[in-house]
User: Which sequence fits this backbone?
């Protein structure tokens, strides 16, 4: 206390005053804090809502455009709710622009990648996570460094090889590399496996389980989140990949959805509403997959985090 | 050698016994067997193509005929006579620096807004993250129309509300670089990926640091600069490197933007856009390698892309090395 009191009574009074003062100050500060917090919360909401509208606007526009006639499409100001709604655009996408085949091709390639690359990556990750063998660390670092390398840069020799094998315009150049797993998936799996308790592995080994048995019966059942995340990411990567299909596939029958969209935009005159309907078809798949795996993707991205 | 015997009532009817089985049971052998697929894939799909690309880059190699050794001629031509490639380098520099900055700063801002629990938090997260899962031709096909010139594109319509005249984004013959601007603006839709990783990173920062800062009387601004940012540097580094590498690989969006969004351009659509305004590393590699089938020359382009990727990663790592801070024993 700064005031050096002459008599005890004055000291106590000024002490009381100071206390009261401090108390009311505290209350004020608390109220100001609350008000400040409320205000910042309101500001946060405003920013978030505005930003959400910005993000959503093109998608809303896309949906509306996919249901328009060409005249409605060009109308300004934008008609957000087309009248009449041309649901036939979607039928045309499949019936006239052959998107049934493209969607089938894309689904096949993506499902294959998801299963084959996923299984192999999980096996390799098991090797990295649970076994001590000479060269493990350098090999793992090597694998991480391949993730830094843009894969498209390596396409030319592979293209020449695949051409000599007669694989161009077949799915083989896209299917075969999946057999060897993907560095990114291996990394995700390995990080997850490292966090699983080893005691269960050991117990299973003592009970006579083989290494492969431990992987199947012990590791995988505990790895649901990472399995879902890797599956969704692998599927979506394949679904949206344009580079591989553009280079290795050239006949109309082998086209994937991205190629269908690229040639849609290149080959015909004004069929924008139909093209937007095809775009909706291409984008609806990620939305569905995200809806399924959303809970896991949120935490799955955390697996990808460093360490 | 390989002895097979019938296993009683086991799951598998046949299993190898004897030396092979004992050999495979060794931990180091089993480890190698499990990682073998990746090692084979690495040799076949990484190492071999890398070496072959290095070799091819010194040759003249086309659709027909054998490779002819030409020494450094491809590189010489690339750096002295190739205008579209020069444009690709300058475009890439602008594009990569700006998009990476937008991603990281925007992703971090969104993460800071969404790091605490409040009603609706989840909803916003989903909306912000969703477009990041859609990168590629699909979203490009949508964005091209959104940036359509005249007044029926969504962006121009929005500008119209602010009384700004419509901008010719993609087919601007006076200012071809407008299409690059449009391409960079689309980045604002993809910040969600970075956001999600930052939210995870923010959760990992121990509360005790904030409490200590609070007691020392640090305000929110100060807490951000002295606690959050330093402790987030590992995540920031990871995010920046991954974003950078991802942005160098931009392909589908520039390709579809180069078409200008008019389906009527037909077969004469240039992969690089009007006046090479959208010449990017990969679109140029695609054009030289797989449209013109100049494999030797394209290999030289690939090597330059490869080296620039390594350099940019090294620069980011070097810069961060000076500031990266790992928190002691939290978690």
Assistant:
């Amino acid at each position: 206390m700064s005031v050096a009191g002459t008599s005890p009574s004055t000291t106590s009074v000024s002490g009381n005053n100071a206390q009261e003062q401090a108390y009311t100050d505290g209350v004020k500060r608390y109220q100001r804090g609350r008000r400040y917090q409320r205000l910042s919360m309101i500001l946060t909401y405003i920013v978030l809502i505005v930003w959400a509208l910005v993000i959503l606007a093109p998608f809303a526009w896309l949906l509306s455009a996919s249901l328009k006639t060409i005249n409605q499409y060009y109308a300004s100001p934008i008609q957000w709710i087309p009248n009449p709604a041309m649901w036939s655009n979607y039928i045309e996408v499949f019936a006239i622009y052959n998107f049934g085949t493209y969607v089938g091709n894309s689904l096949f390639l993506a499902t294959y990648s998801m299963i084959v690359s996923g299984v192999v990556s999980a096996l390799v990750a098991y090797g990295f996570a649970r076994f001590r063998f000479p060269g493990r660390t350098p090999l793992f670092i090597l694998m991480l460094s391949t993730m830094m390398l843009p894969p498209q840069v390596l396409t030319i020799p592979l293209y020449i090889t695949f051409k000599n094998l007669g694989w161009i315009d077949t799915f083989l150049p896209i299917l075969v590399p999946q057999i060897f797993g993907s560095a990114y998936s291996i990394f995700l799996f390995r990080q997850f496996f490292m966090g699983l308790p080893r005691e269960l592995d050991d117990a299973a080994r003592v009970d006579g389980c083989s290494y492969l048995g431990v992987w199947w019966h012990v590791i995988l059942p505990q790895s649901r989140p990472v399995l879902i995340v890797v599956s969704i990411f692998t599927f979506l990567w394949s679904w949206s990949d344009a580079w591989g299909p553009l280079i290795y596939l050239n006949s109309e029958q082998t086209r994937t959805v991205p190629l269908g969209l690229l040639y849609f935009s290149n080959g015909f005159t004004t069929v924008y509403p139909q093209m937007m309907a095809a775009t909706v078809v291409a984008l609806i798949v990620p939305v569905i997959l995200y809806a399924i795996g959303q809970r896991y993707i949120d935490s799955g991205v955390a697996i990808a985090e460093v360490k | 050698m390989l002895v097979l015997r019938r296993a009683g009532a086991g799951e598998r009817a046949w299993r190898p016994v004897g030396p092979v089985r004992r050999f495979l049971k060794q931990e180091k052998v089993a480890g190698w067997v499990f990682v073998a697929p990746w090692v084979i894939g690495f040799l076949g799909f990484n190492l071999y193509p890398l070496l072959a690309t290095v070799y091819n880059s010194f040759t003249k190699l086309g659709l027909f005929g054998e490779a002819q050794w030409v020494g450094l001629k491809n590189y010489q031509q690339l750096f002295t006579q190739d205008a579209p490639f020069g444009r690709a380098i300058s475009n890439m520099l602008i594009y990569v620096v700006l998009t990476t900055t937008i991603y990281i700063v925007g992703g971090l801002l969104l993460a800071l807004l969404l790091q605490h629990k409040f009603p609706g938090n989840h909803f916003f997260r989903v909306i912000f993250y969703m477009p990041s899962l859609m990168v590629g031709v699909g979203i490009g096909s949508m964005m091209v129309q959104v940036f359509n010139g005249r007044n029926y594109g969504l962006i121009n319509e929005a500008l119209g509300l602010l009384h700004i005249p419509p901008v010719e984004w993609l087919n601007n013959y006076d200012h071809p670089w407008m299409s690059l601007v449009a391409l960079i603006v689309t980045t604002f839709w993809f910040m969600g990926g970075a956001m999600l990783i930052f939210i995870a990173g923010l959760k990992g920062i121990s509360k005790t640091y904030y409490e200590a800062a609070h007691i020392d009387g640090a305000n929110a601004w100060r807490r951000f600069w002295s606690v959050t940012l330093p402790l987030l540097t590992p995540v920031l580094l990871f995010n920046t490197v991954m974003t950078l590498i991802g942005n160098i690989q931009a392909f589908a969006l520039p390709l579809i933007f180069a078409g200008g969004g008019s389906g009527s351009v037909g077969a004469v659509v240039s992969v690089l856009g009007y006046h090479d305004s959208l010449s990017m590393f990969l679109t140029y590699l695609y054009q030289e390698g797989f449209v013109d089938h100049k494999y030797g020359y394209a290999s030289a382009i690939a090597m330059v892309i490869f080296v620039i990727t390594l350099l940019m990663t090294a620069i980011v790592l070097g810069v961060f090395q000076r500031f990266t801070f790992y928190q002691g024993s939290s978690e």
About this structure: Chain A touches chain B through 99 residues (CB under 8 Å). Confidence is low (pLDDT under 50) at residues 1-13 of chain A. Chain A has two domains: 8-65, 92-304. Residues 102 and 255 of chain A are 5 Å apart (CA to CA).
